[in-house]
Write a structure and sequence with these properties.
Elements lengths: L1 H7 L4 E4 L18 H20 L6 E7 L24 H14 L5 E6 L21 E3 L3 H11 L8 E5 L6 E3 H11 L23 H7 L6 H12 L2 H7 L1 H10 L2 H6 L2
Parallel strand pairs: 1-2, 2-3, 3-5
Antiparallel strand pairs: 4-6
């Protein structure tokens, strides 16, 4: 709490992006494996942040980063998801987001909630969650640079206050996961993995209605192909190495898939 009080002192707006997430948390610990610990940080930290902001002589506005995961599995419903759709959190991460959204709305502060689509890091690392999404799943991608632009533009947009908005890549970034996985793996030089490597259990993602957020924030600049080019550029000479040793790399990736191991013990 003392650190938060110092951080928010004299600020006009606070953007709250801090959260323990599944699989790729920089802490090295997974909120789904340690939900009580993660809730102390996610929900407890949000509560502390709001208290610190309310204690300021002139409380700043709060922009809270939320997620499309709070809608739960929706592939059986016609797309796109809208901000008026009911929430149905099925993961600890999504439950924490729902709790935090309620804290933000009831805070008495100026607030805005931005629910993000799939914003993947530009990095050369195998996401251990990549296998958990069925290949026929609808998924909306949003480039991390576009997320940053949306947040920056939100600081100067009075119309965001008191509203929930979707932040996604728009119609050009509404894909099936098969295409997302295939293009990313090709960008790294690996090539698409067999279907048996991927789950068939419904996953919490979908296409989003982003018309309102784009009209307000003008942030949809990049496509998924741009992201794949970013990954390929980052890989650089390593792509040649991966292609040279592709059978070994693919075997290593397949060994990390619990679904492939189950199908090919």
């Amino acid at each position: 709490p003392d650190d938060l009080a110092a951080a928010v002192a004299g600020q006009d707006v606070v953007i709250h992006l801090a959260f323990v997430i599944p699989k790729l948390s920089v802490t090295g610990r997974d909120c789904e494996q340690e939900p009580a610990w993660a809730r102390d940080i996610n929900v407890g930290g949000t509560r502390n942040l709001i208290a610190a902001m309310r204690a300021q002589p002139t409380p700043p506005g709060l922009i809270f980063a939320s997620s499309l995961h709070l809608y739960g599995p929706t592939q059986h419903l016609p797309p796109p998801r809208t901000v008026d759709d009911p929430v149905n959190p099925t993961e600890h991460y999504a439950r924490h987001k729902v709790e935090c959204e309620a804290l933000v709305r009831d805070s008495g502060l100026r607030w805005s909630i931005l629910r993000f689509a799939a914003a993947m890091p530009i990095a050369l690392r195998a996401d251990p969650g990549m296998y958990d999404v069925p290949l026929a799943t609808r998924m909306e991608f949003v480039h991390t640079h576009d997320v940053g632009l949306a947040l920056a533009n939100a600081l100067d947009t009075d119309a965001i206050w008191g509203r929930i908005l979707h932040i996604g890549g728009g119609p050009r970034c509404q894909l099936l996961y098969r295409e997302i996985a295939a293009k990313a793996l090709e960008a790294m030089g690996v090539g698409m993995l067999p279907d048996a490597a991927f789950s068939e259990t419904p996953f919490c993602t979908d296409w989003l209605d982003t018309r309102e957020s784009e009209a307000l924030l003008h942030y949809q600049r990049h496509t998924y192909d741009d992201f794949c080019r970013d990954v390929a550029r980052l890989a650089g000479w390593r792509r040649g190495m991966v292609r040279t040793f592709r059978p070994l790399v693919r075997a290593w990736l397949l060994a990390r898939s619990p679904y492939y191991r189950r199908a090919h013990p």
